[in-house]
Amino acid sequence: MPFIDIKVIAGVFTDEEKRRLVEDVSEAAIAVEGEALRPATHVVITETPSGGWAIGGKPLTSEDVQAKRASG
Amino acid sequence: MPFIDIKVIAGVFTDEEKRRLVEDVSEAAIAVEGEALRPATHVVITETPSGGWAIGGKPLTSEDVQAKRASG
Amino acid sequence: MPFIDIKVIAGVFTDEEKRRLVEDVSEAAIAVEGEALRPATHVVITETPSGGWAIGGKPLTSEDVQAKRASG
Amino acid sequence: MPFIDIKVIAGVFTDEEKRRLVEDVSEAAIAVEGEALRPATHVVITETPSGGWAIGGKPLTSEDVQAKRASG
Amino acid sequence: MPFIDIKVIAGVFTDEEKRRLVEDVSEAAIAVEGEALRPATHVVITETPSGGWAIGGKPLTSEDVQAKRASG
Amino acid sequence: MPFIDIKVIAGVFTDEEKRRLVEDVSEAAIAVEGEALRPATHVVITETPSGGWAIGGKPLTSEDVQAKRASG
Mapping DSSP to helix (H, G, I), strand (E, B) and coil, where does residue B48 land? Predict the structure, then answer.
């Protein structure tokens, strides 16, 4: 406690970025909770298939999001 | 807001059906919420492995559900 | 199957709107899945406390969203 | 109702163990709920990629957890 | 790991039944996982507002489910 | 995208701490994703009733966790 579920589209983030996401989100949460809760703090990634995530009714593929990221 | 998570068994729906699910569920929700919330309305598909979904204690495979769908 | 979880901020939607959300989202999904899956189609609302939902790092209250909805 | 989501790291449990998880967790819940709710009791497995689950800020791979299980 | 989320309608189960649900579901899962994973096994209850859970398009209240349970 | 769900036991964190959790977790995620995804980054808090969260089969109350936090 807490349990933090990070939902992402599969294929958008590299393994290295996914590792940084779970590590850095853990540290951000623990800084608020306090070190006593570190052992009970779980942070996980859940992946959604490309094309299976719509924003405003418009489905997005991994490539759509990669292009968006690249646009800075 | 809202965030809508559609959990399904992998292998039951085609990519085309998954696209229609996220689009049509988005439109149904936005019709209630109002257009102002369209940009913040996220609808996603999360997949469960075949055999990893039990109803009443009985695990179902994609094939079980396909047969059920075909039975009309 | 499917199981559809609609996450919203508490206090934004009236009971009537929440009823319409679960009903209309059910019908939109069943129209794609087929009537055979109607009895196994679950659609639920999960509520987040006001101030407990951030978009782009900015926490939103029910009032923020109500004002947004009213702005049309 | 209820809907029970069992989140695990992919590659830790065999298909047989996943089947037993959804069956045994179903029976444990139904024993409390009562038989009348059996047809509406859904238990599913959601998988997280290996390396995508951190405890206390430390990401775990399937192999880490397998070694832990083997240590008894 | 695993993390088990038990979604229920608020007002259906007593505190005592909710305690038994998280305890008995924990034991059922640990019997499959093995004792080595006991310290990392989290089982939680998430509550949905009465009227906010539809099966087959029909919203259910706590009273509907209580009547169903009583019908045995 | 991403959507980040922070599950906590109700009554453990103050409103101020919950605000800091959603803000700081947002910034930690955006630092990895990139600023282009800030507008689509949602971070929310979902609360579990006190006594409705078991670790290793042992249910925890808000007071249990507060005592743990205080123990430093």
Answer: strand
F2 touches E: beta carbon within 8 Å:
no
Instruction: Sort out which chain B residues have CB atoms less than 8 A from D41's CB and list them.
Output: 55-57
Alpha-helix runs per DSSP H in chain E: 15-33, 62-70
Beta bridge partners of F45: F6
What is the residue extent of each domain of chain A? 3-70
Q: Do F55 and A40 touch (CB under 8 A)?
A: yes
ipTM, two decimals, is: 0.96
Q: Dihedral, CA atoms, C9, C11, C17, C22, nearest 10 degrees?
A: 40
* Whether D52 and A41 lie within 8 Å, measured CB to CB: no
Q: Minimal Cα–Cα distance from C12 to chain D, Å?
A: 25
Partner-chain contact E7 C44, CB within 8 Å:
yes
Find the distance separating the first CA and the last CA of chain B, reported in whole Å. Answer: 35
pLDDT truncated to tens, each residue of chain B (72 aa)?
Answer: 999 999 999 999 999 999 999 999 999 999 999 999 999 999 999 999 999 999 999 999 999 999 999 997
Whether residue E54 lies within 8 A of chain C, CB to CB, comes out as yes
Please check whether residue F58 is in contact with residue F18, taking contact to mean a CB–CB distance below 8 angstroms: no
Q: Is F53 in a helix, a strand, or coil?
A: strand
With an 8 Å Cβ cutoff, is E67 touching chain A? no
Please state the length of chain A. 72
Q: Which residues of F touch A33 (CB under 8 A)?
A: 13, 17, 69
**Residue E67: how many CB atoms within 10 A of its CB?**
11
CATH class of D3-70: alpha beta
